[in-house]
Amino acid sequence: MKLISSKEVKARKEDHCDYCDQIITVGTIYKKSTFKDKKCIDWKSHLECEKLATKLKLFKDGFCEQGSFYAGVLAAYNKIGKENINFREKLQIVLKKYLPLQ
Questions:
Q1: 8 Å CB contact between 17 and 37
Q2: In total, how many domains does the chain have?
Q3: Paired strand residues for 34
Q4: Cα separations (Å) of 66 from 19, 27, 53, 83?
Q5: CATH of the domain at 48
Q6: What is the pLDDT along the chain (102 residues), one digit of tens a residue?
Q7: Residue 66 belongs to what domain range?
Q8: Phi, psi of 9 (to 5 degrees)
Q9: CA-CA distance, 69 to 12, in Å (whole number)?
C-alpha cells in the first residue's frame, strides 16, 4: 500500500478513528491520510492512536490495519494489566503507559 498524502486537519464534523473506532469530535485535530493499493483508501485517525501505533511498532509496509492496532493494544495491555475491562478502557491505560505526556 502506497501513501499518497497525509496531513493534520481539524474535524468539521463528527467522524470515527480508523484505528480505535472511537469518535473524532468536532474541533479535534486528527490525521487524514490517503493510501493507494488497487483503489484509494482514506484513513482518519486520532493523533494519539497514530503515535501509539508507531510506538508499538504496528506498521507493516507503512500501514497499520485496524485489526493489527486492536491486537497491538491488547498485547500491550496484557503486559501491564489483567482486569476484565472493555477495549476503550484498555486503550486509555496503554496510551497513558506508552505516551505519558498526552
A1: no
A2: 1
A3: 5, 42
A4: 5, 23, 10, 23
A5: 3.30.1740
A6: 788 999 999 999 999 999 999 999 999 999 999 998 889 989 999 999 999 999 999 998 888 999 999 999 999 999 998 889 999 999 999 999 999 875
A7: 2-98
A8: -135, 160
A9: 25
